Task: inverse folding
């Protein structure tokens, strides 16, 4: 890959364009990798963000799940502690009952309660593995309580109820109270644990919320940023190259572009600049060749016209003499010589006009003239031709068209070309001429419309209509007269006058030509004459 | 009679009485242990002087504090409306007794003092009129829960009713009147609930006004936790660890003195102008009601945990219990006194 355009010769300031490019697109453009790699890289970056987002989401879910498990664990602890607390109270109650009603049944009940104690304790031991110290204290207190309860039962069985009551009051009750506080402490710890977990859960929710928003914004931001950077780094050079090609297509080879890309676009820009440089040389060569050709044609035409006029003139003299001498047998041949000479002269004149136009040497000479008069004059000229092909020539011309400031000769030539063509390519038909004046914003327009009911043209023929000698290449040229340059010249004149020419045709039904010319040449905007083979 | 008792009180007589009933052993003072410790960093100790009669141990500790090396023991009166926390934060006092729930409720207001020990178990009474049989019956009734909503009794009342599912803000009507007027209204049957720390509740009970809905001395779960606790100024504790330990030892031992000598303790409160001489009988009754001797069996950390849970349920605080314990308690002094004072917990 090469960095493009060290040498800039254009007027637009290619360096300025590059400098105006934002730093990120410029950075992306200067990355020495292919466009494909850049696009894939951008996608991978976004995918990486999304994968990271998904990964963190899974971690959050896992933590959330763990917290739920912890909640359940704490609930189990609380249930076990409460059961222990309840049974402690029950134990004290059963002892009190046994002391009040000292029979075997009650005493057995009090002793059986001790088994329940042990079972509760085992449960607490199971659920509170992480609180070994506290459990140890509970266990110690429980063992003490079991001993005291056993003693109370034994004293009661021995009939020493008073001693049993004293033992209950002085030892069992305080032990029971302490156990209650211990289990309370365990419950409170578990509840505090739940609260702490709840706080953690809330914090995690807040973090998750921020994370989701953050990642969402980051993903969107990254996508936009990368999209912007890559599109700008790609589209910027493409648009500049497009602009350069547009200028080249208009014949302006003076510009160069500079793109910072070190990818395929950089190479392409370099090739375009090189191509433009090559085209400059070629253009100059072609221009010189065209000038030589035009000059040659002008010279040749001029040199040909002189002897040709002599030939035509002598053919006419010879025809007159043949008529005078009644030598009728020579007249058809002499006519053929004269007609051929006139055709050749018309062809040479057309070529001369065309070469002058292309060489930029043809100048329009505007003058004020009456449009309606000019129209009638042209119509009268073409009437014989219309009759020859048995066409009806209809003219719709407003007598108040007024005066026009333009090159009358060329306007007349254009109208004559159109009417002549219409008459030649129509047999037993109708040729209609409409001449009207259209009001414009800045100046008025002359609107000429020539419609025939002749043979019409195919789309292929229409596309080649304004190419020089195009008629000569068709079958029509064999049947109809014409140099094949008339429409080309008409179009060129129209452009030079700042007008517009349009054609519509249906094969087999006829053709319509329209000419729109400014009434005042001072306001006309001439269009650059395209090359002959354009 | 009250006058005679008051006149009979003096520091000299108290020490004489103490000597008669067992001198140092009676006071729980281990001179060997105290002598083995370094002297306190400061010989001045300032304690917050406040109204509750249940705070008697800190007044009864005066002589013990002298024995611990404090030559200047001051009881600094707190300005009206000032909280214990503010009193500590002002630097006017070094240690103070504080009601646990009230103290924790200040947590959101900033740096609260550090809890270093429990002092005694429940001292509050919630009395009800004939129209209420239980705490839940207070729903829709008018209650006197102190004269200001920020007060300790009011916060405690809210925890009591919230514990049985009432919404203290919506379910209860409050009479925001001074205590004297509240007693009158309650006696007249115009109030259905009355909460107070000693000796107001004892006075009402002695006059057979109302009946006990909650006695935090005996009713669970309140009886399972410390009511008032010892709090120290953060800076004082940090700079004077030996003094803190010596002061704490004195006050905790004074607990035992109050338990054994409620009458002498009541007289000390009157001497210190904490309570009026006319309240003597009610104060004595209050001090007898409170099981001061049980302080060794209770875990102060679990008290903090319990009240933190209750206050959080109420929405008064946002911190979780463990955070509060981690940041606002310091059991080092109690821990170091564990064997010496025969403490069952911590």
Result:
């Amino acid at each position: 890959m090469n960095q493009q355009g060290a040498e800039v010769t254009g007027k637009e300031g290619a360096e300025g364009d590059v400098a105006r490019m934002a730093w990120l697109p410029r950075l992306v453009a200067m990355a020495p990798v292919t466009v494909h790699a850049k696009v894939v890289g951008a996608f991978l970056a976004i995918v990486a963000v999304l994968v990271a987002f998904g990964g963190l989401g899974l971690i959050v879910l896992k933590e959330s799940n763990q917290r739920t498990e912890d909640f359940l664990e704490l609930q189990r602890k609380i249930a076990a502690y409460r059961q222990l607390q309840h049974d402690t109270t029950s134990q004290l109650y059963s002892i009190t009952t046994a002391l009040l009603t000292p029979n075997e049944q009650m005493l057995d009940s009090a002793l059986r309660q001790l088994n329940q104690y042990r079972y509760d304790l085992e449960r607490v031991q199971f659920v509170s593995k992480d609180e070994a110290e506290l459990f140890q204290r509970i266990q110690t207190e429980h063992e003490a309580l079991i001993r005291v309860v056993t003693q109370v039962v034994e004293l009661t069985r021995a009939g020493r109820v008073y001693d049993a009551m004293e033992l209950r009051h002085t030892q069992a009750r305080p032990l029971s109270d302490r156990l209650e506080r211990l289990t309370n402490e365990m419950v409170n710890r578990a509840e505090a644990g739940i609260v702490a977990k709840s706080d953690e859960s809330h914090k995690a929710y807040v973090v998750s919320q921020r994370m989701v928003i953050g990642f969402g914004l980051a993903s969107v931001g990254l996508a936009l940023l990368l999209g912007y950077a890559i599109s700008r780094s790609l589209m910027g050079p493409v648009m500049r190259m497009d602009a350069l090609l547009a200028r080249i297509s208009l014949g302006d080879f003076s510009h160069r572009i500079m793109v910072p890309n070190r990818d395929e676009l950089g190479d392409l820009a370099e090739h375009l600049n090189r191509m433009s440089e090559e085209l400059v040389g070629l253009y100059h060569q072609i221009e010189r060749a065209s000038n030589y050709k035009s000059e040659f044609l002008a010279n040749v035409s001029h040199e040909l016209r002189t002897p040709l006029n002599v030939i035509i003139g002598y053919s006419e003299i010879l025809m007159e003499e043949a008529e005078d001498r009644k030598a009728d047998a020579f007249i058809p041949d002499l006519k053929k010589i004269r007609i051929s000479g006139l055709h050749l002269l018309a062809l040479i004149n057309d070529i001369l006009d065309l070469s002058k136009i292309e060489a930029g040497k043809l100048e329009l000479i505007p003058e004020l003239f009456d449009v309606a008069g000019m129209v009638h004059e042209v119509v009268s000229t073409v009437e014989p031709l219309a009759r020859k092909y048995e066409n009806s020539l209809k003219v719709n011309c407003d007598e108040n068209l007024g005066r026009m400031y333009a090159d009358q000769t060329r306007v007349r030539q254009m109208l004559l070309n159109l009417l002549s063509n219409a008459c030649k390519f129509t047999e037993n038909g109708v040729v209609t001429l409409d001449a009207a004046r259209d009001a414009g914003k800045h100046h008025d327009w002359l609107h000429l419309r020539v419609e025939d009911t002749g043979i019409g043209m195919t789309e292929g023929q229409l596309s080649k209509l304004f190419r020089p000698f195009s008629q000569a290449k068709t079958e029509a040229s064999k049947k109809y007269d014409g140099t094949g340059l008339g429409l080309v010249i008409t179009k060129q004149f129209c452009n030079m006058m700042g007008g517009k020419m349009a054609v519509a045709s249906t094969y087999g039904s006829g053709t319509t030509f329209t000419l729109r010319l400014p009434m005042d040449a001072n306001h006309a905007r001439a269009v650059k004459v395209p090359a002959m083979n354009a | 009679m009250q006058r005679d008792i008051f006149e009979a009180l003096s520091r000299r007589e108290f020490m004489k009485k103490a000597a008669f009933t067992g001198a140092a052993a009676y006071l729980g003072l281990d001179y060997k242990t105290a002598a083995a410790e370094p002297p306190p960093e400061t010989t001045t100790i300032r304690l917050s002087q406040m109204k509750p009669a249940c705070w008697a141990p800190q007044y009864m500790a005066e002589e013990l504090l002298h024995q611990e090396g404090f030559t200047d023991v001051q009881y600094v009166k707190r300005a009206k409306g000032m909280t214990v926390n503010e009193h500590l934060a002002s630097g006017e006092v070094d240690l103070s007794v504080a009601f646990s729930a009230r103290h924790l409720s200040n947590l959101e207001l900033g740096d609260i003092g550090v809890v270093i020990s429990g002092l005694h178990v429940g001292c509050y009474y919630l009395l009800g009129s004939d129209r209420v049989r239980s705490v839940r019956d207070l729903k829709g009734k008018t209650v006197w829960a102190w004269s200001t909503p920020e007060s300790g009794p009011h916060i405690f009342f809210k925890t009591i009713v919230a514990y049985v599912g009432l919404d203290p803000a919506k379910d209860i009507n409050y009479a925001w009147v001074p205590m004297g007027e509240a007693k009158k209204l309650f006696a007249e049957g115009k109030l259905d609930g009355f909460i107070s720390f000693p000796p107001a509740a004892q006075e009402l009970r002695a006059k057979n006004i109302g009946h006990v809905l909650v006695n935090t001395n005996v009713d669970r779960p309140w009886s399972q936790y410390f009511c008032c606790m010892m709090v120290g100024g953060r800076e004082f504790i940090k700079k004077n660890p030996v003094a803190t330990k010596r002061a704490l030892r004195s006050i905790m031992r004074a607990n035992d003195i109050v338990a054994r000598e409620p009458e002498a303790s009541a007289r000390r409160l009157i001497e210190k102008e904490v309570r009026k001489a006319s309240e003597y009988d009610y104060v004595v009754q209050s001090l007898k009601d409170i099981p001061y001797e049980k302080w060794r069996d209770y875990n102060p950390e679990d008290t903090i945990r319990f009240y933190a849970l209750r206050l959080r349920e109420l929405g008064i605080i946002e911190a979780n219990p463990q955070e509060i314990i981690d940041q606002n308690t310091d059991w080092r002094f109690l821990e170091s006194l564990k064997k010496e004072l025969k403490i069952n917990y911590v």
Notes: The CA atoms of residues 467 and 533 of chain A lie 6 Å apart. Chain A touches chain B at residues 174, 177-178, 180-181, 184-185, 188-189, 191-193, 195-196, 198-199 (CB under 8 Å).
